[in-house]
Design a protein that fits this description.
It is built from 13 helices and 14 strands. With about 425 residues, it is of the alpha/beta class. The radius of gyration is 21 Å and the shape is globular. The two termini are about 35 Å apart.
């Protein structure tokens, strides 16, 4: 018989956010709570071909935080480094007495190296047009492109020599990275793991690909910032965003020994595959992921006090997700506050799961539930307790859930509770 390993409690002791809303955890969450949208008309090089394109971009000032060596990395890797740096400082990692061999880095990214890839193909095309040799490229192009560039950069920057994994399952990428890091720690294979989600795909080639899918929002008349409208009858799709979120996960024993701030204890993780359709969501698949997370947590559906929905503002996605929530939670769905924060920070694709789970933890810690912005006429097929218009303050949240559902049929549900 194999030797049974002791199960460890796993907590989040550090959070870092670099989003279209702000370059820090505090700035991002404060703008979110105020309902301030980061959605704008897309950059000129995108708007030239797609005049109605919208995006949510990280402020250029982020680059001022990079050192000389970091300036040559892909944009997504730069985001990941900065978010992880904030999360580690927040966790007080300078006081760690942990063995670096038992500190890992897990990352989630949807389309690694998109800005590098765009630059490569643009240069090749320009060289061909000019009659020059198109084969001369930067020698580090492949390391910049590779999906695990972020895990490599973070582990080298901090000399973390524990397990290093990268997950790429579209919009569920970094939510899965959180869940798998939780399992790794729970079963004793590491003492701490930095989990990061990163994405930077707001470039012309990628925008044209997304545009071909017909899932991106059209500008809302008179107010482009209000164009992403999850669960609203006037919704027309999501807005591509970029950025990164990082969370420091460690065993409760380690965090308590250091007297670290604990944002919450991860207690439930569910993952499933639809195995039905490449792009259309399945309520049955979503249901299985959520039920799996609830069963592992030991929390009854009525014990979840806030749900950060996937909420992409697509026609099919919002209806299917609403049906799933009502199927899982029953009558409690009428009293379960639900918000879709993509309405303000955009859809961060691979970074979305970690970002929205971090937001859920900050909501639990602060007692403030951020709103689903621009939800003025709720679709009657999406009947839930939507957080309309303004944030809800003074909430006593004992347990929160964050859901991420992806193209390809990957579903992830994460649950955290107050640590006691």
């Amino acid at each position: 018989m194999p030797l049974a390993l002791p199960l460890h409690r796993v907590v989040v002791s550090g959070i870092g956010l670099l989003t279209p809303l702000g370059l820090t955890r505090t700035a991002s969450f404060e703008r979110l709570v105020r309902g301030e949208s980061a959605i704008r008309p897309a950059a000129a090089e995108i708007g030239r071909w797609l005049p109605q394109a919208l995006s949510a971009d990280v402020a250029p000032a982020f680059a001022q935080q990079l050192d000389r060596n970091e300036q040559g990395l892909d944009r997504a890797t730069q985001f990941a480094l900065l978010a992880s740096r904030e999360a580690l400082a927040d966790a007080g990692s300078a006081d760690w007495d942990l063995d670096p061999d038992r500190i890992g880095v897990f990352a989630g990214i949807g389309l690694g190296g998109a800005t590098t890839g765009e630059a490569l193909y643009t240069r090749m095309h320009e060289q061909l047009q000019a009659g020059r040799n198109p084969t001369v490229m930067h020698p580090l192009s492949v390391p910049r492109l590779m999906p695990n560039a972020a895990t490599a950069a973070i582990s080298m920057a901090h000399q973390f020599r524990g397990p290093s994994h990268t997950y790429s399952v579209a919009c569920a990428s970094s939510a899965m990275a959180v869940g798998e890091a939780y399992r790794t720690l729970r079963h004793g294979y590491a003492d701490a793991i930095v989990v990061v989600g990163a994405e930077a795909m707001n470039v012309p080639g990628v925008f044209m690909a997304w545009n071909a899918l017909r899932v991106m929002a059209r500008p809302f008349p008179g107010n482009p910032a209000a164009s992403c409208r999850p669960f609203d009858q006037a919704r027309s799709g999501f807005v591509l965003g970029e950025g990164a979120a990082a969370l420091v996960l460690e065993t409760a024993a380690s965090a308590q020994r250091r007297g670290a701030t604990i944002y919450g204890e991860i207690c439930g993780y569910g993952s499933s595959s639809d195995a039905q359709h490449l792009t259309l969501p399945s309520s049955e698949g979503q249901y299985r992921a959520i039920r799996m997370a609830l069963e592992e947590s030991g929390i009854a559906p009525a014990g979840i006090h806030y749900l950060n929905a996937h909420g992409t503002a697509t026609e099919a996605g919002d209806v299917v997700e609403s049906e799933t929530i009502r199927q899982v939670f029953g009558d409690h769905a009428d009293r379960l506050p639900v918000s879709a924060t993509k309405s303000l920070h955009g859809h961060l694709i691979g970074a979305g799961g970690a970002t929205e789970f971090a937001i859920s933890l900050l909501a639990m810690q602060s007692g403030i539930i951020p709103p689903t912005a621009h939800l003025e006429q709720p679709d009657p097929r999406c009947k839930l307790d939507h957080v309309l218009g303004q944030a809800r303050h003074g909430q006593s949240l004992q347990a929160v859930m964050s859901n991420s559902f992806a193209f390809g049929g990957s579903n992830v549900s994460l649950i955290a509770r107050r640590f006691a």
